[in-house]
Specification:
heterodimer, A: mainly beta, B: about 325 residues, mainly beta, Jelly Rolls
């Protein structure tokens, strides 16, 4: 018996279906690749939200701003290849907000911590206490496990199946 | 009818059946007996029969999940509800027919006692060659008389990551070295490693791993492993093939993210079991599972699923009190 694993991408995705005798808003059904096909580069679009926690679908294309968060975040590359560069934060750069990612107003001033180059299926730690920047030569997709924060974009009516 | 058994309750085993060899077990007011094909559950005024494969697949997962979040329905009649310290075992409580005829029954036990009872039953009823955590095409049959009890751990694959899988001192991803080859259903995928280049002094602080490789090596199905934690937000991943052998009733909202292939979900009202419809999730789809439903998944081909859970203690009580809406995106956010 042979198998063919189906992994969608920006270039090829097929959304499933939702047929319910219920309010479809309760299910917030969307597709990460469809969301990122319509997103601006590095727009952090919430596709899952569980009280204060969130998963953000991000179209990686070109170079991102520098981000930091007061807690760990995790990025799963869903399509393409993304380079993640990490710097330590100086005391003055440490975030004072409660949760979620925030962008730095200038390049980070601390020591360079290193970099990760990740492709589809790789999960990357975005550690608390660091600044990180994403780079992608071609349009790519990552899903970030985080908390809702200043950079989170909510547009549920645009991304979800409602009928 | 409800009963609360907060004192220690031990499972009582009978002598082996002289024909089939299995023991019968009594736990509180329930008794459990299996034959070649079926498990028969009895309680005051009632009895229910479940096919043995389904019963054992449900029971070992219920143990491994630590009774999970909320309700685990072995089928439409029998199951457990987790109260995080105590566990209800119920029969007919969420079945209108049973309630209307007064044969429903629910008994509450200490969690450790239920775990011990379910483990004792499972160990006696699982024969060598049958592994209820594997996909049906990857294991033998549970049918027939008792042969030799299965060796090895009853449950596996449940050790949760504390921060992120693969970090020094944390849980290690599956590999050939750990005895987990790539599953046949994912053999067509290419797996590589991320490039990790820490500066001197930052080794162990910069981290990544191949999550899909870890999932593809699972020798178990419908069995989430924690891979990364943000506060109380838990990212779980799991490989799904055939059918979820339980119907899960949420006590909180959770989210499914379909990484590969597809899963078909039947959705029911949590309290009545009445059908609400179905959802087909394909690669890249994201869908909430609200706190007022039951769901059961069917995976025609082994697939990779990610689940976002909120493990905040006491959350189930806030939903139960109506303090939180039973769906995640409230009206003002649309």
């Amino acid at each position: 018996m042979s198998f063919k694993t189906r992994m969608a991408s920006l270039a090829s995705y097929e959304k499933g279906s939702i047929e319910l005798n219920d309010d479809l808003k309760h299910y917030a059904f969307s597709n990460i690749f469809e969301v990122c096909s319509k997103s601006r580069p590095y727009e952090r679009v919430m596709v899952a939200s569980n009280l204060e926690y969130a998963a953000e679908a991000v179209r990686a294309e070109g170079t991102s701003p520098w981000y930091t968060a007061p807690h760990d975040e995790f990025a799963i590359v869903m399509d393409g290849e993304i380079e993640f560069t990490f710097f330590q934060l100086t005391d003055a750069e440490k975030p004072t907000h409660k949760s979620g990612a925030i962008r730095l107003q200038a390049d980070p001033g601390g020591k360079r911590m290193g970099r990760v180059i990740a492709r589809r299926g790789h999960e990357v730690l975005l550690p608390k206490g660091s600044a990180y920047q994403l780079k992608a030569a071609m349009p790519s997709v990552t899903l970030i496990q985080t908390s809702a924060g200043p950079e989170s974009v909510e547009k549920w009516s645009e991304i979800c199946v409602l009928k | 009818m409800n009963a609360v058994r907060i004192e220690k309750v031990q499972v009582i085993a009978s002598a082996p059946d002289p024909v089939l060899g299995y023991r019968k077990f009594t736990f509180g007011s329930f008794s459990f007996e299996r034959d070649a094909y079926f498990v028969h559950v009895r309680w005051p005024k009632g009895m229910h029969t479940i096919e043995v494969d389904r019963f054992l697949r449900a029971m070992v997962r219920d143990i491994g999940w630590g009774f999970f979040y909320g309700w685990i329905f072995f089928d439409d009649v029998f199951g457990t509800q987790n109260h995080y310290g105590t566990v209800d075992i119920f029969a007919g409580t969420y079945s209108k027919g049973h309630r209307d005829t007064g044969v429903d029954f629910l008994e509450t036990f200490n969690t450790d006692d239920v775990r011990n009872a379910f483990e004792t039953i499972s160990v006696n009823w699982i024969n060598e060659g049958y592994d209820p955590l594997r996909a049906p095409m990857e294991t033998g049959s549970p049918l027939g008389s008792k042969t030799k009890e299965a060796a090895g751990p009853l449950i596996r694959g449940f050790e949760p990551a504390r921060r992120m899988m693969g970090l020094p001192g944390d849980v290690t991803p599956r590999s050939d070295a750990s005895g987990h080859p790539i599953n046949r259903a994912f053999a067509d995928v290419t797996y590589d490693k991320p490039t990790i280049e820490p500066e001197p002094g930052f080794e162990g602080q910069i981290h990544a791993f191949n999550l899909y490789d870890h999932i593809a090596r699972a020798d178990i199905t419908w069995n989430p492993s924690f891979t990364s934690i943000t506060g109380a937000c838990i990212c779980c991943v799991t490989s799904e093939e055939h059918m979820l052998p339980v119907i899960h009733g949420n006590d909180r909202n959770e989210w499914f993210i379909q990484l590969t292939d597809e899963i078909h979900w039947n959705i029911q009202d949590k309290n009545t079991g009445n059908p609400r419809g179905r959802i087909v999730m394909k690669s890249g789809d994201v869908c909430a599972m609200p706190a007022d439903i039951r769901h059961q998944g069917f995976a025609p081909k082994r697939s990779m699923l990610m689940v976002f859970e909120n493990g905040t203690p006491g959350l189930e009580q806030r939903y139960a009190r109506g303090e939180l809406e039973p769906f995640p995106i409230t009206a003002s956010r649309w």
